[in-house]
Amino acid sequence: MVGARHGRLLPVAALLVATCFSPLLLPPAAAVDELDGSGREAQRNTERISGSAGDVLEDNPVGKLKVFVYDLPSKYNKRLVTKDPRCLNHMFAAEIFMHRFLLSSAVRTVNPEEADWFYAPVYTTCDLTRAGLPLPFKSPRMMRSAIQFISKRWPFWNRTDGGDHFFVAPHDFAACFHYQEENAIARGILPLLRRATLVQTFGQKNHVCLKEGSITIPPFAPPQKMQAHLIPPDTPRSIFIYFRGLFYDNGNDPEGGYYARGARASLWENFKNNPLFDISTEHPATYYEDMQRSVFCLCPLGWAPWSPRLVEAVVFGCIPVIIADDIVLPFADAIPWDEIGVFVDEEDVPKLDSILTSIPIDDILRKQRLLANPSMKKAMLFPQPAQPRDAFHQILNGLARKLPHPETIYLQPGEKHLNWTAGPVGDLKPW
C-alpha cells in the first residue's frame, strides 16, 4: 500500500488509493511490451492515438527526403568517442547515434546535388569531466571549425549560409553552449548556426536558446538498460506519486531558490511527509522497477526544463507530471502530450496533492491506455539498430515536414546573412 512506510494514510488519501489502485489500473508490461524490439504489439489495454497526432507519429520518412552526410575528419566525432566511450551512455548521446543511424539509413544520399538536407556530424557534448559531465566550453570553437571546413570543401553551405543544413545540439541550452542559463542567454545561439535547423533537447518558449524551426527531441535513455529492469506484467501500480532526484543543488546554488526556480525545493518542503508522495534524493537500484509500480511520475525542471525522467515515465507507462513553465516537449506536433501527461505550473507545486487526487479515475485510465500504445514509447527512444517510428524516424519526419525549402533560403550572388566574426572573442580562436 502506498505510504505504508510513512504510517497510516489520511482518510481522503486512503479512499483515493483504495479506489485507484485496483486491478483496473494498467500493469507495467502494457507500457513496455515492445521495448525489446521483438515487434509484439501491445494490443491489450491500449488505445489508438486519435486524430492527426497519431497519424504523424506513425509516418514513414523514407521517400520524403534525402540527406547528405558530410564526411568530416574524425577529430569532430569518432575520435572523441574513442577517447572517452562514456559519451555513448550520457543523456546527450543522441548526437552520436543519429550520425550512426544516418550512415545506413534509406534516406541517405551520396549525391549532394539531390539532397534536401545536409548533416554535419559534430559531437559537441563529448568533452567530459572526471564525473562524466559534458563541458560545452570548447563547443563553439569546435562547431565553428567544422563549418569552416565544410564551407571550404563543399559549395552547399555557401549557397544558403546553412539554411538547408541541420545539426544535433543536445546540450542543456543547445547551441547557446553553456550549462548555466544566465550565461547561455548572454551568449545566445552560436551566430554561424542561426540559419541552420537545430535538433536539440532543450525547449522553452520565448527563449533565446530556442530558435524558430528547431526540432525538439527527447534526451537519450538507454533502451537496453530499461529492458533489463522489466517486472512481471501483473505487478500492481502501488505507488501513487514517485520522484527521485535533487531538491536543492547546494554546490551550484548555495543560497537556494535559483535551482529549478524553487519548484523542487517547494516539492520537498510541502510533501516530504505526505504519504501519497514517494520522493527522495536517494536513487535506488530499483528505480526503473519503482517507476513501473507508480501511477504518476514527477518530471520537474532542474537547471534545464527537461530530463530523462520524461522518457522513462513514458516508456514505463507512468503518467508524467510535467512541472516546467513554457516547456517545449519532444516531437510536440506528433505526441499528444496534453492527453498523456499532467501539466502543473511551477507556482502551483504546493497544490500538487489536491491537483493529482482530483483527477477522475477515467482520465487516469485513458492516459495509461494511451501510454501503452507502442508508437508512443518508440518515439521516445533511440534504439540500436533503429526501429520504425522510433526517435530517429521522428527527427526525419520533422525535417520532411519542413520541405520544400522556401526560395528565400538561397542567397543571391554576393549576398551574405551570417557574420563570421560575431560572438565572443574566445570563440574565434582556432580549435
UniProtKB/TrEMBL annotation:
<keyword id="KW-0328">Glycosyltransferase</keyword>
<keyword id="KW-0732">Signal</keyword>
<feature type="signal peptide">
    <location>
        <begin position="1"/>
        <end position="31"/>
    </location>
</feature>
<protein>
    <recommendedName>
        <fullName>Exostosin GT47 domain-containing protein</fullName>
    </recommendedName>
</protein>
<keyword id="KW-0812">Transmembrane</keyword>
<keyword id="KW-0333">Golgi apparatus</keyword>
<feature type="domain" description="Exostosin GT47">
    <location>
        <begin position="64"/>
        <end position="359"/>
    </location>
</feature>
<dbReference type="GO" id="GO:0000139">
    <property type="term" value="C:Golgi membrane"/>
</dbReference>
<dbReference type="GO" id="GO:0010417">
    <property type="term" value="P:glucuronoxylan biosynthetic process"/>
</dbReference>
<keyword id="KW-0808">Transferase</keyword>
<dbReference type="GO" id="GO:0009834">
    <property type="term" value="P:plant-type secondary cell wall biogenesis"/>
</dbReference>
<dbReference type="GO" id="GO:0016757">
    <property type="term" value="F:glycosyltransferase activity"/>
</dbReference>
<comment type="similarity">
    <text>Belongs to the glycosyltransferase 47 family.</text>
</comment>
<keyword id="KW-0735">Signal-anchor</keyword>
<dbReference type="Pfam" id="PF03016">
    <property type="entry name" value="Exostosin_GT47"/>
</dbReference>
<dbReference type="InterPro" id="IPR004263">
    <property type="entry name" value="Exostosin"/>
</dbReference>
<dbReference type="InterPro" id="IPR040911">
    <property type="entry name" value="Exostosin_GT47"/>
</dbReference>
